[in-house]
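Appendix C reproduces, verbatim, an entry submitted by the partner laboratory led by Prof. M.T., so that reviewers can inspect both the input and the predicted structure.
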Amino acid sequence: MNFETPKYYGKLKRCAAMILLLGLSFTVQTGQVYAAPNNGNAAAETEEEITQAGLYIVSQDGMGDFTTIQAGVDAVQSGDTLLICPGVYEESVEVLNKTVNLVGWDRDTCIIRYNASGYAKAPLIFSAGDVENLTIYGYGGETQEQESVIALTEIYGNENSTVDEIAQWQSMFSGYAVHIDSNYLYGKNVHMKNCKIISDNNCCVGIGGRGESSVVLEQCELVANGMGGCIYYHNTDEEAFGGEAYFTLRDCVLKNYRCPYVISMHSTGECNRVYLTFQNNHVSTVAYEARHIYNLTNMNTMFDVELMEKLEKSDALYTVGYSTSLKKSGLITHYDINKSYEYMEMIDNAPKDRQALQLPEGISYISFADNEPHYIEQESRPDVKARKRCVIDIYNKNQVTGSGWCGLNDIYLTPESYGNTLIEMNYPIMN
């Protein structure tokens, strides 16, 4: 028997893949698949279909079942798993209307990358299933100044908007690295573990919630290089896909080098209540002295950066029940004028080096020179003065402050939230 022939090499490789898969922490989330009501709005996998799920190999050398991830996604049945061998996969992977599990052989060597400078494409567009051990990189051209997704919701928020108007709205910003926003998510789950998600454009992960579902990011590293932060989440206003939903961020690292907001959340209505859980997440992000960078529409009811720092220095922050994982070193690091210009010049002129830049954990406060006329003119305007410096952006469709997390409507922080860098992400403990 010649084990060097492609036929037997392929069989050996599959056996090795099976052994590896059994040794991974990855598990198909069969116990968490909800059965969607038989209302014609969402497809529900039966337990028999999940039990019979198969394992297939994606390998660029032709020794697996498929040479591209998309070919595997298109061919496999709902509930199947694709084991992805090392390689750089230059493709936009779309997993729509089925549950597929994507498991990389090794996070550092299994890379999905794609040009996400346009909103319609992303390295990974995902509906339901598990994703593990992958680097997912949405790159683009030179970073362009653009408003955040939340600042551009006026057209989208209008129920009378035409398809062309919505398309025009979407064309105003770039794509995510990972985009999870499909009615197929209703009654199902997404679980991402041990992934590195990098975006040079919009947010690293853009999520549109659906009822009776759960989205979990665990032990992931999110690196935001562009004008989008690490996470954008919105619930749905479609009653047919409403119901309670859960979003969990656990043991993750968030690095936001440029955007004034590391997290943005948008509540669209009352039919899709969401429960947020944040546990042991380490955040490195920026804040700016210049107010014109921030959204006038931000409804965040928590402390702004300046007040937060004052409360922290006086120990009042902890006496009112809020905590941060940075009690010793302090939450906010000030950059003087020289260091601020040095930082921004590096961000603007050397985008490839941004991943190597080490921001301290917490909030890095970027200053600007007081004698620059264009900043003085902008900062003196009433609409600019009204803008709040917060690293989390909050928006409600009805433009009324709610009772939920940071002023959201029907999106709430659970008491199981603790151990995070940012105080907003920790459930307050009242003495």
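Residues 116-425 form one domain. Additional entries are available on request from the coordinating office.
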